[in-house]
Amino acid sequence: MLKHIKLLALSSALAVTGLAAQADEVTIAYQTGIDPSKVAQADGLYEKATASKINWRKFESGAEVIAAVASGDVPIGNIGSSPLAAGASRGLPIQTFLVTAVIGDSEALVVRNGAKISKPQDLIGKKVAVPFVSTTHYSLLAALKHWKVDPKQVQIINLRPSEISAAWARGDIDAAYVWEPALGKARASGKVLVSSQQVAKWGAPTYDLWIVRKDFAEKNPQFLTQFAKVTGEAYARYNADPKAYAANPDNVAKIARLTGSDPADVPLLLAGNVYPSLKQQTELLQKPFSKAVSDTAAFLKSQGKVDALQPDYAPYVTNRFVKSALDAQLAAK
């Protein structure tokens, strides 16, 4: 009887996840954040699981991804919680369906050696570069608020990560709040003043995540379930033994190649984030996450970065696909 029930559960899970009716070809926008799913991406596991051709397009910032998704050019994109809050506040037809990482030391405010910045108040009058409406922009503003430094007293400049690296090399900026690979290049001749791990403890957590257009999600639930399942399996491999995973040169090389990072930085940056399991994500992608998005949006509005707020951000978050992926995973055991 137990075996019969288990087979029925597996059959039901397969019906939900679907191995046959998949999208034929999908364009996915990804960024250069460090996480274990990059290994699965490099190994072609998403294509194998979804039986689809995936065109991976690399973007430099969440704002660029949001623009591509809003236009309908890209149905799935990797962004941070700050761009999500901004996009949701505009009423874009998107949903978060998967959390890539709870951001920690992989994003940081780095100050240039010789810029005479040894404490937060020294940022006054200095040129600080950051991609606007990104998680690092949100973290920078939150840090300045915590330090009681008026953002208007700081020369905050809107630059993309590649532009930050170029400006840093020229000596045009004094500090930057950014992620890899620009972060590693800045740290080579600078020091970290604060990371997003500490800013989260001050009450401003940030996340990396995957969004999907609602019209695509309605037509392709199997694709998204399989996408979540592959990501969950990648995270399970990392979380089983983080040190051994990060010590594996093959893993490091694949992540470095996809993100443009220095391989020497990858182990440290992997350890700088938290990668939630599918079970944890089914709980996170409910009230806790929608509240975080709402809080982020409210902060952005207070800073004049968004014009209006949604009455409820829950419609922009769903745990449907991580739950389906978890059900299929449990049924297969």
UniProtKB/TrEMBL annotation:
GO terms for cellular component: periplasmic space
Keywords: Signal
SMART domains in the cross-refs: PBPb (SM00062)
First-listed, main subcellular location of the protein, grouped into a coarse class: periplasm
Compartments (UniProt record): Periplasm
Name of this chain's protein: Taurine transport system substrate-binding protein
Pfam families: NMT1
NCBIfam families linked: taurine_ABC_bnd
A GO biological process held by the record: alkanesulfonate transmembrane transport
Annotated ranges, domain Solute-binding protein family 3/N-terminal: 25-242
Family under the similarity heading: Belongs to the bacterial solute-binding protein SsuA/TauA family.
Signal peptide bounds: 1-23
Species whose genome carries this gene: Chitinimonas taiwanensis DSM 18899
